[in-house]
TrEMBL record:
Gene: trpS
Protein name per UniProt: Tryptophan--tRNA ligase
Keyword Chaperone: no
Role played: Catalyzes the attachment of tryptophan to tRNA(Trp).
Motif ('KMSKS' region): 201-205
Domain of life: Bacteria
HAMAP family: Trp_tRNA_synth_B
GO biological process, one term: tryptophanyl-tRNA aminoacylation
Pfam families attached to this UniProt entry: tRNA-synt_1b (PF00579)
Length: 339
């Protein structure tokens, strides 16, 4: 099992990122480690160049994201944790794959269509071609499992198409250069909604800070955000079916269940009949007990620039070694002379 996944270091990570993505990374890391596999998690800083960005912010966010991932339980001893900019093989392999990827394939990507809108001519070339960099990210390590959200499934299929065409065109059948990666969609990845509007997902890019619990919030901030979270005046029912038209109430129960690692129905079995005056403080206490230690560790690590640099340097060295054989095979298959 070779797990590869990336996370963009833009903005502050929040409870949705933790419950929907980072916590699964930690589980996969432990699974891969126990089974003799490997886990690669990287900061997708090169991908951040596909949109307008502020260099100083990208720099600070990259370091904060490393501190967050380690604070959440990614262990640099078991996971190869690095940023793309320190592993030039990602950009190199992307270029080698550019001859294989077809314009028509990229044109069909819904994320490109959504993000570019009507103004295609005004977009960066990076925004158009970044699925090829994503393909390089996973093919470089012969990934077998790539944890992705629904929104990234199409990009992973593109990576498979690129790998397959490259193998067909340049490799012999019994010695393919690339492994075809499989999407890995965890059974119970929670989708966490905004605390201000139960129909919108919790997001880094949402302007209102009250809409989300940041992993960097202290106990008072968390308690205040839950206290002020939008709800309705009805008490909680005793099972989820009773929450069908109550998006905000349903979201708070989902958050409770995800934090307690239990089912929403089990939460309602315990808290059914209570009003939010009682349920919200219980939820805040639970969130503080789970996220408090993560925040403390984050604050400590964030101040320790030397340790962060050491984690990234070590991860990058491991990643460069791990990717070297595949990159060599790709250069050779293409007939490039390298001395
Ligand atoms: P942005 O608003 O800039 O897109 P974001 O909050 O959506 O930021 P991303 O960096 O796009 O965060 O996503 C990082 C990971 O967190 C992805 O795997 C994504 O699927 C997951 N994720 C993001 N928001 C949520 C959410 N509200 N609930 C569950 N998972 C989420
Ligand atoms: Mg997003």
């Amino acid at each position: 099992m070779i797990v590869v996944s990336g996370i963009q270091p833009t903005g502050k990570p929040h409870l949705g990122n933790y419950l929907g993505a980072i916590r699964n990374y930690v589980k996969l890391q432990d699974e891969a480690h126990a089974g003799g596999g490997k886990c690669f998690i990287f900061l997708a800083d090169l991908h951040a160049l596909s949109m307008p960005h502020e260099p100083a912010e990208l720099h600070a966010s990259t370091l904060e994201m490393v501190a967050t991932l380690v604070a959440c339980g990614l262990d640099p001893a078991n996971t190869t944790l690095f940023n793309q900019a320190q592993v030039p093989q990602h950009a190199e392999l992307q270029w080698l794959l550019m001859g294989t990827a077809r314009m028509g394939w990229l044109n069909r990507m819904t994320q490109w269509k959504d993000k570019a809108g009507k103004n295609r001519e005004g977009q960066s070339v990076a925004l158009f071609s970044y699925p090829v960099l994503q393909a390089a990210d996973v093919l470089l390590y012969q990934a077998t499992h790539v944890p992705v959200g629904e929104d990234q499934k199409q990009h992973l299929e593109l990576a498979r198409d690129i790998a397959q065409k490259f193998n067909n065109d340049f490799a012999s059948e019994d010695a393919p250069v690339f492994t075809l990666p499989e999407p890995y969609i965890p059974e119970a990845a929670a989708r966490i909604m905004s605390l201000r509007d139960g129909t919108r997902k919790m997001s880094k890019s949402e302007p209102s800070d009250m809409s989300r619990i940041n992993l960097t919030d202290d106990a008072d901030e968390m308690a205040q955000k839950f206290r002020k979270a939008r709800t309705d005046p009805e008490p909680l029912p005793s099972e989820m079916a009773g929450l069908d038209d109550r998006a905000e109430a349903s979201n708070l129960v989902t958050i409770y269940a995800a934090l307690a690692e239990t089912s929403p129905d089990a939460v309602l079995g315990e808290h059914g009949g209570k009003g939010f005056g009682e349920f919200k403080p219980a939820l805040a206490d639970l969130a503080i007990s789970v996220l408090g230690p993560i925040r403390d560790r984050f604050v400590e690590l964030k101040q320790d620039r030397e340790s962060l640099d050491a984690i990234l340097a070590r991860g990058a060295a491991q990643a460069r070694d791990a990717g070297a054989p595949t990159l060599d095979a790709a250069y050779n298959a293409l007939g490039l002379v390298r001395g």
